């Protein structure tokens, strides 16, 4: 996951490959609660690991469930309708799928256990999301529910009361279907002696989510009788029975981003999505039909989808999106690539989600340059001929981040010239943790970008000037990859030494470099499967690296390998010739220096930290000799690129150096401060 303030998406190109979806949030949190309320142990396979499931797991633990997580398996031993604690304060973040059903279940349980009292709260936005319709329904049933802040909103306290099940329980269905889901999950706890009827007031929205609820209830032994979409009867004698093991299917709403990706960029080969398909019980699987209406070519298997681009530009649509409220957000961004204006209707529920999604979507699409009309319950988006670089605010809303990432395909814009392309900055990218923590990693694994579009910062300079340290920190701040090019010369030296190739044998060394079987795992270097990272730091290996790096054939042998490190979303490369030879088109080049005295002292401290003693004078003489050799060699000598910025860090700390480089980088980016 990218836990950084912003992630810049370079202009992206074609997409192909396979994505494994994380588990469905809706199914995961329903299953967790059902397992928690049941007697016995339920094993959930491929449960979603995200912010929203974590708060649900924590709440269930607090209430007395035993939970063991073991790889793909989560085993929950339920409290069988009797929480182990009579009072608890539950923090539920911004998870509506935890807040609503837990409120209902605990309100019902609190009426059955004298003295029980539970408080449920979350983050600030959770306290702005209405829950009054559920509170009214629970009070109508005889539960005691107090709103601790604003009436009709969390935080809430449920404590005591007397259930009256004689009359049907009434609940509004036209704001959020989660209120009905909450009652459907809670009331089997009360339907032991008599049937309980729920009546929906108003037109029920998001019916597919209710179907998920009914489907999962059935797996736990509760056969709800549905009479149209107005009445639901929970039979007398209801009792939660664990089905033992349940597999969590992939998240159909998350699939929407990759379905859209296939429709936009699946040109030569399809994008394959595994984990969800035609057999899905989630309503958002019908996003596939909307994508097909826009031109996507979809091949559906029971548990997988393959998507290719069909019509291009995409076909504009005018769609009632009530059946796919979450996934429909993706259509708003697809509309930028369409052949006319697209209208998404019946989406009023967007206004009470993680943020006011209608307002947020309109605002961010306009930043890209789009013309957008926004109504109480609709959004109309015009296709965009020329995208502007934009810094996208994500409102702590995972779906805003994931949807808007699709704007990075603007190079493919059918109304564009194929040349004009802009990057997209996603602010607070870690908000995807709510449902898809590794969304951006999954995206980068199936998309291509022109090498020239992938940004590079080069940091060259003499020995021990702090290049590696600076490079790693800048890369961490931007979410980029690193290339420690010195390690490639070092590993060549090590491989040659082991093979008995002399430092004077230019062709033998080059052949050794070409034949090396290398793997990089983070900062670790593996040579023929052996982790040689520590050995590479030996002074003797460094000295041999310095000698062999002067051979043109050795440098040529390592050229392609170094260029291959230029991968999405960006690269910070350090060495001696990064800015002059390997990445001459880098967007920012730094030449990092420090006095020889400062550098020798740093090297000494490094060695002391490793328990190695050395003489300061010897170290200084050694690094000056190395620098001299690097500066004076004929091929790729150490020197600043003409367009490099010089940074002397003799008196500048590491953090200050990092901030300086990041500030230089940002000053060259096209994003404004909006
Ligand atoms: N600005 C700085 N101020 C003080 N110490 C620093 C600074 N930058 C880096 N150092 C320290 O200097 C030492 C050498 O840094 P580093 O290994 O990053 O240098 P390098 O240029 O990559 O070296 P080499 O070229 O030999 O690989 C490290 O111990 C590091 O913590
Ligand atoms: N781009 C580069 C990087 C390094 N070298 C040579 O390799 C030696 C080891 O590098 P370290 O940065 O790990 O110390 C170094 O002394 C250089 O001679 C190079 O030529 N080009």
UniProtKB/TrEMBL annotation:
One Pfam family from the record: Cytidylate_kin
Keywords: Amino-acid biosynthesis, Aromatic amino acid biosynthesis, ATP-binding, Cytoplasm, Kinase, Nucleotide-binding, Transferase
Alphabetical list of InterPro entries matching this protein: Cytidylate_kin, Cytidylate_kinase_dom, Enolpyruvate_Tfrase_dom, Enolpyruvate_Tfrase_sf, EPSP_synthase, EPSP_synthase_CS, P-loop_NTPase, RNA3'P_cycl/enolpyr_Trfase_a/b
Record: residues binding ATP: 461-469
GO molecular function: 3-phosphoshikimate 1-carboxyvinyltransferase activity
Subcellular compartments: Cytoplasm
Pathway annotation: Metabolic intermediate biosynthesis; chorismate biosynthesis; chorismate from D-erythrose 4-phosphate and phosphoenolpyruvate: step 6/7
Stretches assigned to the Enolpyruvate transferase domain: 16-443
Record-listed E.C. numbers: 2.5.1.19, 2.7.4.25
Stored PROSITE patterns: EPSP_SYNTHASE_1 (PS00104), EPSP_SYNTHASE_2 (PS00885)
Swiss-Prot/TrEMBL catalytic activity: 3-phosphoshikimate + phosphoenolpyruvate = 5-O-(1-carboxyvinyl)-3-phosphoshikimate + phosphate; CMP + ATP = CDP + ADP; dCMP + ATP = dCDP + ADP
Domain Cytidylate kinase: from-to ranges: 457-663
Residues that bind phosphoenolpyruvate: 25, 96, 129, 178, 357, 399, 434
Similarity-based family: Belongs to the EPSP synthase family.
NCBIfam families xref list: aroA (TIGR01356), cmk (TIGR00017), PRK11860.1 (NF008816)
Record-given protein name: Multifunctional fusion protein
Biological classification of the source: Bacteria, Pseudomonadati, Pseudomonadota, Betaproteobacteria, Burkholderiales
Gene that encodes the chain: cmk
């Amino acid at each position: 996951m990218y836990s950084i303030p912003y992630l810049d998406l370079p202009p992206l190109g074609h997409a192909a490959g396979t994505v494994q979806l994380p588990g469905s949030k809706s199914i995961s949190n329903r299953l967790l609660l059902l397992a928690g309320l049941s007697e016995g142990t339920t094993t959930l396979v491929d449960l979603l690991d995200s912010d929203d499931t974590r708060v649900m797991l924590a709440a269930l633990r607090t209430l007395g469930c035993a939970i063991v997580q073991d790889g793909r398996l989560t085993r929950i031993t339920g409290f069988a309708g009797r929480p182990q604690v009579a009072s608890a304060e539950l923090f539920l973040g911004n998870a509506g799928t935890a807040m609503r059903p837990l409120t209902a279940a605990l309100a019902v349980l609190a009426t059955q256990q004298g003295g029980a009292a539970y408080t449920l709260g979350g983050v600030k936005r959770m306290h702005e999301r209405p829950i009054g319709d559920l509170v009214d329904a629970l009070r109508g049933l005889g539960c005691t529910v107090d709103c601790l802040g604003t009436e009709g909103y969390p935080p809430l306290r449920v404590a005591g009361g007397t259930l009256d099940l004689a009359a049907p329980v009434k609940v509004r269905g036209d704001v959020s279907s989660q209120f009905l889901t909450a009652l459907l999950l809670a009331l089997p706890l009360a339907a032991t002696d008599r049937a309980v009827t729920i009546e929906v007031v108003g037109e029920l929205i998001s019916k597919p989510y209710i179907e998920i609820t009914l489907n999962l209830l059935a797996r736990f032994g509760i056969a709800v009788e549905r009479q149209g979409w107005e009445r639901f009867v929970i039979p007398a004698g209801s009792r939660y029975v664990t089905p033992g093991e349940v597999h969590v299917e992939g998240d159909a709403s998350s699939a929407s981003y990759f379905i859209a990706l296939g429709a936009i960029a699946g040109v030569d080969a399809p994008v394959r999505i595994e984990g969800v398909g035609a057999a899905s019980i989630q309503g958002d699987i019908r996003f596939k039909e909307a994508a097909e209406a826009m031109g996507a070519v979809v091949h559906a298997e029971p548990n997988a989808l393959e998507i290719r681009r069909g019509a291009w530009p995409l076909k504009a649509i005018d769609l009632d999106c009530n059946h796919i409220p979450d996934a429909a957000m993706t259509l708003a961004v697809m509309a930028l690539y369409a052949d006319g204006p697209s209208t998404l209707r019946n989406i009023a529920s967007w206004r009470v989600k993680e943020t006011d999604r209608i307002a947020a979507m309109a605002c961010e699409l306009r930043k890209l340059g789009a013309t957008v009309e926004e109504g109480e319950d609709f959004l109309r988006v015009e296709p965009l001929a020329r995208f502007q670089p934009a810094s996208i605010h994500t409102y702590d809303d995972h779906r805003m981040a994931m949807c808007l990432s699709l704007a990075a395909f603007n190079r493919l814009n059918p109304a564009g010239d194929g040349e004009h392309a802009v990057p997209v900055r996603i602010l607070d990218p870690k908000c995807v943790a709510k449902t898809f923590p590794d969304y951006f990693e999954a995206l980068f694994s199936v998309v291509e970008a022109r090498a020239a579009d992938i940004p590079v910062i080069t940091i060259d300079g003499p020995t021990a000037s702090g290049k590696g340290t600076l490079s790693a920190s800048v890369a961490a701040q931007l979410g980029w990859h690193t290339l420690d090019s010195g390690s490639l010369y070092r590993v060549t030296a090590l491989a040659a030494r082991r093979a008995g190739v002399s430092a004077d044998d230019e062709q033998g060394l080059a052949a050794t470099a070409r034949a090396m079987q290398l793997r990089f795992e983070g900062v670790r270097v593996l040579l023929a499967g052996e982790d040689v990272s520590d050995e590479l730091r030996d002074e003797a290996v460094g000295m041999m690296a310095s000698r062999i790096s002067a051979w043109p054939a050795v440098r040529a042998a390592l050229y392609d390998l170094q260029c291959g490190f230029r991968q999405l979303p960006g690269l910070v490369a350090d060495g001696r010739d990064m800015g002059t030879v390997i990445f001459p088109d880098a967007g920012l080049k730094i030449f990092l220096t420090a006095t020889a005295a400062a550098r020798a002292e740093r090297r000494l401290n490094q060695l002391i930290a490793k328990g190695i003693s050395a003489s300061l004078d010897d170290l200084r003489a050694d690094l000056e000799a190395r620098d001299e050799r690097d500066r004076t060699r004929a091929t790729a000598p150490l020197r600043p690129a003409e367009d490099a910025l010089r940074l002397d860090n003799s008196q500048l700390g590491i953090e200050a150096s990092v901030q300086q480089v990041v500030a230089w980088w940002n000053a060259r980016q096209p994003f404004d401060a909006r």
